[in-house]
Amino acid sequence: MKQRGLFNRFTFFCLAVISTILLAGCDAQYFVLDPKGPVAETQYRLIILSVILCTIVIIPVLAILIYIVWRYRDKPDNKAPYMPDWDDSKVLEIVWWGIPIVIIGILGYFTVRDTYALAKPPVSDAKPITIQVTSLDWKWLFQYPDQNIATVNYVEIPTGVPINFQLTSDAPMNSFWIPQLGGQEYTMPGMAMQLWLQADQPGEYYGTGANFSGRDFAHMRFQVVAKPQSEFNEWVDQVKQTAPSMSKADYDKLAEPGQSEEMTFSSFPADLFDEVVNKNGGQYMEHHQMGDDSKDTESDSDGMDHEMMDHEHMNHDMSGQKAE
Amino acid sequence: MLESIKEFASTFFVTGDPLIYGADVSIALTSLAILFVLTYYKKWGWLWREWLTTVDHKKIGIMYLIASLLMLFRGGVDALLMRAQLALPGVEFLHAEHYNEIFTTHGTIMIFFMAMPMMFALFNIVVPLQIGARDVAYPFLNAVSFWLFMMGAMLFNISFVIGGSPNAGWLSYPPLSEMSHNPGPGQNFYIWGIQISGIGSLATGINFLVTILKMRAPGMKLMKMPLFSWSVLSSSIMIIFAFPILTVTLALLFIDRYFGAHFFTMTQGGNPMMYVNLIWMWGHPEVYILVIPAFGVFSEIVATFSKKRIFGYKSMVFSMMIISVMSFFTWVHHFFTMGAGADVNAFFAVSTMAIGIPTGVKIFNWLFTMFRGRIQMKTPMLWTIAFVPCFVIGGATGVMLAVAPADYQYHNSYFLIAHFHQVIIGGVVFGYLAGIYYWWPKMFGFSLNEKLGKWAFWFWNIGFYVCFMPQYALGFMGMTRRVYTYGWDLGWAPLNIISSIGALLMGIGFIFQVWQISYSIKHGERDKTGDPWNARTLEWSIPSPAPLYNFAIVPEVKGQDAWWIMKEEMKNGEEPKKAELEPIHMPKNSGIPFIMSVFWFIAGFGFTFTWTWMGVVGLIGVGLCLFARSFQYDTDYYIPVDEVKRTEASLGRVV
């Protein structure tokens, strides 16, 4: 028991140190808990809900544990009841099978609801724009098919507009993550995955590769700059006028293993994204036609047709695989 | 000629890092010291007769235990190296490639070569004694399993100094683990190390399933069996279904690498996602394979040290069995972000949450076993009590991770790292350590020092929370796993240095345990009764350490907690029934398991370096061993009654 007191004091000391450091380090940013877009917002609400539901279980369990360990300790003068053969209680068993079932039921309901909700683009009046993302060894290439510009290791987006990120990789699998805008999704060779994100406020956001992909993985960070549509348009115009264009040779050079600075291009080879997908195995996927993608994305814009979700992609991909 | 030898050596041996040279020297010195001691004290014959050729489950268990503690040391050093590198931003202690190798070997060693053998140590030491058997169902196969594990572990570990370590993560996702991105032998070491030991694991699963189903003492119905044995049964069933998946997956990866096939390549129709699915179809059951026996350990300890029957026995059995089934239907939660679509993610999110229900029920049953009991704070019980909050929090973060849309934010971040370390250390490691403390007197005939044990316990526990609680926060701050360095700009530094201090505290805890063991070997309290804890199950009814044949007379089981019932009867003055001694049928020792495993090692080493001739030689050796064994007819013998009587008398027992 003496040690227990010691432990409590030590924990308290540790907590004190931790909180001091937390308060002192004002540059500490809890990105996941500071959502700046509807997708991250939904995920944040689920996180809070799950924390609350879990706390409802954790706190009583810990309280019961402490109470029992203290009350039934093996001391000669302990007057608590001792019932060595008591080992069954239907009522208690029903209670603790029941409580978790109810809690999981509640959490499960919201999980399933939001899982389906997030497969659709965020609700918005604005017409979505498409950005094609390619993870390379060890850098990020962003192509804007509608604007016909490209960037490396940073991406600018208009605020209030759903962004249809199409993700692939021309290197081992990575994962595309902008915590303040929403959760990550894998970038996989030979696949074009779809991730809807949206920024509601202008600002600079932290983006990173999240799935280990080799030597310089730790350096695969990128800046996300969200600005109002008008400023975004200005930026696009400026890029078109000032930046160099990207040739196929430029891309091949970019794709070579190594790190890269931020780069900007006023144009890129037509169909580069599709070629990269196909080159890495996309051509084996039966129904995988990138042309359809853009069509579907357009039809998404009228808010009527959200058929082209990433799970559809996968289903097609898998059936294509079986047909091999 | 000299030039070519030089060139060979420079690629064959890992060079260039002072850490490696230091390791080279210490490995060479340790090996020389061992050779010297064995030769000087003329112990080679003893080593061969008593240990290398043994088929005794108790000795095999002890060898598993020693190996797993060594691997815990190796994996722990890896962890400390990583925490040193991450303690502050921009530390240049390890460069990227070295760091990648270290996190790969850390994960691989901790799961395959630390947790698995520590679990098998408990299986071997406890199960036959607990069910009143004289050995496992297939003692020879048991020795084969151990030596396959040992050779696989050695093969994996030499990659540190020869050829280079694997560096594609502990599950080696392709295409990073394919020839295109990883042409060296490192990845082959990974494949062959795990393959060879994996065959052993599968055989152990079969062995213990049969042992438990067929070799229980008369009267021990399944529903009267101790819960640890139930947990082993559940775990064995999972091993039998899960490990073949692992073997096939790694075999396909090897075929890709060796014969240039395209199962998991990016091009030519390969599909890396298939690997990710397959490896987790094994990988998720694997964590339950590991944790269920820990649950079994807690069930034994909590009843013994509360001096009370386990609460809700049927519920405990049912929840373990249902977990073993459900564990095969949750694997996709390891990669929700692969974007398999809302239908798939919704299914696996709910199935993952659902598996938390039976797990939660077990927690309540342990709590109410203590309720109205008398709780003794001995080391095994301390670990058990510490397990409860740790696992409850770890389980809760697991439920949080199961929320598929939220997982898009946690995935691959330090939140995930903190979660799985909390359930694996808090559940598996705490459980096995508790089990080792609990059964230590039964293994070796003396108890471990309580005082040093408590120091170790507090260092481990405080260290654990200091190390891993900050990592949850780091996950929310966007820190991803497997980064070898980071900058000052994101405010990750303070929490990382705290985490590194915690890792160090756990390291100190381990040192205390080593001290505790070495101290207790000399000064530990000898166990003359065979029942130092006043325990409840059959293993405590026989002397410590158990004689070769375990039970001179096979006991008659009258109910749950068979030994407790016998003790109650003796207290009431009932004389135990006298039974006549009979000659005891035992298996003979054999050198074949060891020799065959050495040939497996040779084969694995050959294929690792793509020296096909050597691989073939090894496989031929394996074949010859199997052939030789199938013509061995003289594999068993009887211990005569006289000898049993003499042994029992020397242990202070009258038969």
The first-to-last residue Cα distance of chain A is 67 Å
Q: Per CATH, what is the topology of the largest domain in chain B?
A: Cytochrome C Oxidase, Chain A
Order of helices and strands of chain A: HHHEEEEEEEEEEHHEHHH
Poorly predicted regions of chain A: 287-324
Under CATH at level 1, the class of the largest domain in chain A stands as Mainly Beta
Parts with pLDDT < 50 across at least 5 consecutive residues of chain B = none
Structural domain count of chain B: 2
Describe this structure as you would to a colleague:
- The complex is a heterodimer of chains A (324) and B (655).
- In chain A, a hairpin with a 4-residue loop joins strand 2 and strand 3.
- Chain A has eight helices and eleven strands.
- Chain A has two domains: 87 residues, Orthogonal Bundle (Helix Hairpins); 172 residues, Cupredoxins -  blue copper proteins (Immunoglobulin-like, Sandwich), CATH 2.60.40.420.
- Chain A is elongated.
- Chain A has 324 residues and is of the alpha+beta class.
- Chain B has a two-stranded antiparallel ribbon.
- Chain B folds into two domains: 42 residues; 568 residues, Cytochrome C Oxidase, Chain A.
- Chain B is 68% helix and 1% strand.
- The mean pLDDT of chain B is 93.
- Chain B has 655 residues and is mainly alpha-helical.
- Chain B contains 20 helices and two strands.
- Chain B starts with a helix and ends in a 5-residue tail after the last helix.
- In chain B, helix 4 runs parallel beside helix 6.
- The longest helix of chain B has 35 residues.
- At the A-B interface, helix 1, helix 2, helix 3, strand 7 and strand 8 of A face helix 5, helix 9, helix 11, helix 12 and helix 13 of B.
